[in-house]
Design a protein that fits this description.
- It contains three helices and five strands.
- The protein has about 170 residues and is of the alpha/beta class.
- The protein has a single domain, classed as Lipoprotein like domain (Double Stranded RNA Binding Domain).
- The chain is flat and about 70 Å long.
- It starts with a helix and ends with a helix.
Length: about 170
């Protein structure tokens, strides 16, 4: 009985070691471990609304990648230019009475990165994503909060996609 438990433990440990070796061999990296180009060490964010949530999300994401975000464009080694950001809300389905049952929220962000010398580090890129959510006309307040949470999550995911595009330049 004791020997069976020992063999089972050895098999589990062996399986975990093999899994770890296979993951490292394929180049798997955790999402936050991507490094950004060295030119982005001190980055200025240029946007139409410099105090909006999109700029805040980009600044937070850059800081987690050990980038200093500055409000002075003259001291920056790179500039992240948010060219455009669009939000859309579309009806996906309605019931027999014509009341909305489901919405789709979509957002697109177009951005580029330039060095301090105004040389393009990353040509204009666009990331887009959409999310669906159910709507109930009898529970309007909670559905409005749900929409706000979905929008916030959608924007953060798009910012992470944009950061991954920037990291691809470094590799």
């Amino acid at each position: 009985m004791r020997r069976v438990k020992t063999l089972r433990a050895v098999a589990v440990v062996s399986l975990l070691v093999c899994l770890a070796v296979m993951l490292s061999a394929c180049g798997f990296q955790l999402r936050g471990s991507a490094s950004l180009p060295g030119e982005m060490a001190v980055t200025y964010i240029q946007a139409g609304n410099p105090y909006g949530t999109l700029v805040n999300d980009f600044a937070e994401a850059l800081r987690t990648h050990k980038v200093t975000v500055t409000e002075d464009s003259q001291e920056a080694t790179a500039t992240l230019v948010i060219i455009n950001s669009t939000l859309d809300k579309d009806v996906l389905s309605v019931n027999g009475n014509g009341k909305v049952l489901e919405y789709q929220l979509s957002q697109s962000i177009q951005f580029a990165v330039k060095t301090g010398d105004n040389v393009s580090l990353l040509e204009p890129q666009q990331v887009s994503m959409s999310r669906d959510y159910l709507y109930s006309s009898t529970d309007v307040l909670s559905k409005e909060r749900e929409e706000a949470v979905v929008r916030r999550t959608l924007q953060r995911e798009l910012v992470n996609l944009a950061i991954l595009r920037m990291a691809a330049v470094a590799n």
